[in-house]
Amino acid sequence: MTRIKKYVAAATVTAAVLAVPTGAYALTSGGTSSTPSASVPSAKPVGESAASAASGAGVRTADQAPSIRVVAPGERVKAAPGVRLWLTEEGKYWSTPDMDEQFRSVTDGNLDLSTPGVSRQSESVGDRYFHSGVYYGSRAAARVEITTRTGRTVRASMVELAGKPGWGAWYTTTELPPVAKVLGPEGAGTGTGTDTGAPVDFIRSVTLYDTAGRVLATLGN
């Protein structure tokens, strides 16, 4: 029997939102939300774009932005070894070796699609840490990057349905964080260090850029 896991954003944030792993998080230009979890081409290869780069603040040049892959509703994309991700008009779905089907809705009212924002779900898959989410609120979205606590910046792959719906999904992987970094309520670190017994989130931020390299939204802590 297929297992389905839904993720619902807890709140909404403006220009910055608190991020947390092993659950789901969402940020909009008006509030913060949390909840974390994970993203590969199917028959048509799509690979994961993970590029290390210095974490530059502010503007990125448009020619650095990878193209956004347009997929058909239900088309399975290989987001990572053992991970498949697909879109429908209702939102983002993905499956991992440990979970048959997970879902992040764009129609349940938890995301304000009229305002630029980005969400994240993170989970361990094998020897990697898988991250995925929804970007939304702008037809000019062109790039998603995540920055880890170690200062590493990783560029994500992006997919969306035809017709420029104003939202899409992103995905990438990073190394697994130390266990102490991701413990806490719902897997979301809330403290400032492991020595206090209050772990912090391994992902420092998720940033959405437009076609001109300007920051549209940042989900971070």
Number of helices: 1
Low-confidence stretches: 8-23, 28-65, 183-196
The count of β-strands is 17
Mean pLDDT: 74
> Numbering strands along the chain, what is their spatial order in the largest sheet?
3-2-10-11-15-14-5
What gyration radius follows from the Cα positions, in whole Å? 16 Å
- Largest sheet data: 7 strands, mixed
Approximately what portion of the residues adopt beta-strand conformation?
Answer: 35-45%
Distance between the termini: 38 Å
| Shape, per Cα inertia axes | globular
Give a description of the structure.
- The chain has 221 residues and is mainly β.
- It has a 7-stranded mixed sheet, with no helix packed on it.
- It is globular, with a radius of gyration of 16 Å.
- Helix content is 2%, strand content 44%.
- Mean pLDDT is 74; it is low at 8-23, 28-65 and 183-196.
Index terms:
221 residues, 17 strands, seven-stranded mixed beta sheet, mainly beta, five-stranded mixed beta sheet
List the helices and strands and how they pair.
Elements: E1 4-7, E2 24-28, E3 31-33, E4 52-53, E5 69-71, E6 77-80, E7 83-88, E8 91-96, E9 99-105, E10 117-125, E11 128-136, E12 141-148, E13 153-155, E14 157-161, E15 167-175, H1 179-182, E16 203-210, E17 215-220
Task: Describe, in short, the structure shown.
With 221 residues, the chain is mainly beta. The chain has one helix at residues 179-182, and strands spanning 4-7, 24-28, 31-33, 52-53, 69-71, 77-80, 83-88, 91-96, 99-105, 117-125, 128-136, 141-148, 153-155, 157-161, 167-175, 203-210, 215-220.
